[in-house]
Every structure is written in C-alpha cells, then in structure tokens.
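sorry for the late reply, my laptop died twice this morning and i had to redo everyting from scratch. anyway the thing you sent over, i finally got around to it. pasting the sequence first so we're on the same page, its 326 residues, then the predicted structure underneath. double check i copied it right bc i was rushing
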Amino acid sequence: MPHAFLRRAASALALAAFAAFPALSQAQAYPDHPIKLVVPWPPGGATDALGRMLAQRLSERLGQTVIVDNKAGAGGNIGTAAFVREKPDGYTLLVATSSTNAANPHLYARLGFDPVKDFAPIAFVAEIPNILEVPKQSPYQSVRQLIDAAKAAPGKLNYGSGGVGSSQHLAGSMFNARTGVDILHIPYKGSGPAVSDLLAGQVDMMIDTGSLAQVQAGALRALAVAARQRLPALPNVPTFAEAGVSDMYASAWYGIVAPAGTPDAIVQRLNHDINAITADPAMRQRMESMGAIVPAGQTPAQFGAFMRSEIDRYAGIVKLSGAKME
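ok and here's the structure:
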C-alpha cells in the first residue's frame, strides 16, 4: 500500500510538472514575435501619446516590435471589449485608463467586458491632472471671470470632451456641480478632435489632460489645475482651490494590462520592464513635460488593488458630477 501511494504521488507530481512545462517554456521564450498594444482612443490624445512613448521603449527592452493599434469608439469601450477576447499570451496588451476601467462601468449599461475579471493588471504608468483651458483668443483670463460669464448666461458656454465618460466629461460635469454653473457638454470621438476645435475657438473651454504642449506654446490659456498642488510644468497656473473652487480634483490615470489568464511569469517580466522604463530619468522627464505625475514602481497586485479602488471611487464621482449612463 505505501509503495502504491508513493507511485501515485510521483505520477501526480510528474503530470503537474508536465502541465506547467508549456507555460514555463512560453514565458522563457517570451517574446519571440511582435506585440500589439491596443489604445482604445484615436491618435492625438494623451492615451495615444503615452502608449506610443511606452511602445517605443518597450520595443527596445524586449527586442521585439511593439505595434500601437488604435481602436476608438464608445468612450474606449469598443477597443477594450475587443481586447479582452484576445489570447492571454502576452502578445496583446492594453492601455487601460480611468475612463474605460473605472468610470465607464457606472456610465454604460453594456460594457462588453468585466472591469475586474477580464484583466491581468501589469503596471501603473502615469497620472495626468486635468487642466482648465480656454482658447488664446478667449476673453476669460481667470476662473472667476469664466464662472461669472457662465452664471450670467446659463447654457450659452460649452465645454468639449473626449466622449461620454471621459476624464474631460466628468471633470466638466464636476466643475458645473462645484460652481453651480450650466456649461453645455459637447462630446467628441476622442480628446484629439475636441482639442482641435478648442484651438479653433469652436469650443469655449475644456478641462483636459493631454494638451499641455499647446498651453506652453501659447495656443491655449490655462486657468487652473485640478490637483492638490501646482504642476512643475505650469508653476504660474493656480490650482482650483487657489482659484476659489474647492474640492475640484480630477485626473486621468493610465496603466498596462493583459487579458485575464496571462501567465504570471510574463506579467512579472512586463511589470519589471515597464517600471524600469518609467523610472528612467529621460522617460520620466518626457512624461512630466506632458503634465504627468509618474508614480513609483508598483507590483501587478498593487496596481490591481488600485484599479478596483478606482471603480468604487468613480461611482461617487459619476453620481456627484451628474453624468448619465448613455
């Protein structure tokens, strides 16, 4: 009997080792062909810019091309829903955002994905506080002037966003709630087209995350930053609190995820490489020049816990902002 038990135990261990061998071999050989990085927004916005910067550096570290694939629509849901159907082999990654993976679950009746179960968190990349901007030809020189004009003519002024549920939409709705004004929301298919109309003066204002370069070039005027402290890139621009609007904090966050079921060895490898990339001084400077706050490297588990907490937090933000499910 003892010998039979030992034989069965040895056989079970051998089978377990054999079953684990393909996954181990796959992780050791990874990557052996190009990787696709899905950006669920159109070219031109902050998500696209960060995705392309990261793809270039990740290509260099991994020795394989990382191809950016823009799949826009429905506030990022179309590209994200398509992504979760990809093979969990580490060859298709996604730029997850606060819109798609935290706000949208409270805005859309049908997402096409589960914001927790369908993803394997890899790495937190950056957070970009929203900035209240107006065109350079705008008559408004301060937040107070803008609020006074909006109160004098309810519904006359408008603000652009990258779409329903985007960080710009929620920030604009929050601004309405915090100040008691009625500024009309104009959603676009991505923040890039919205900024283009803002530059042309077809939109009165935008509380955006990806147009710092236009502010620094003088094409847009920044009136306030939705953060608890001033941005080093815009030292002369006050926070909303300094401008007289309390509890106005809004930012977009960005991270890299894989489909659920991706081998842990691949997730850990990518986490190590992405954290090394974002810790590099040159890369950090590039991201900070976009107005980003770059966190210290996090583990996949820490990033996963953050993503879950953000889903809970955005339930309150969506309710407070007045954003409706569409």
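The CA atoms of residues 87 and 259 lie 7 Å apart.
thats about all i looked at so far, will dig more tmrw
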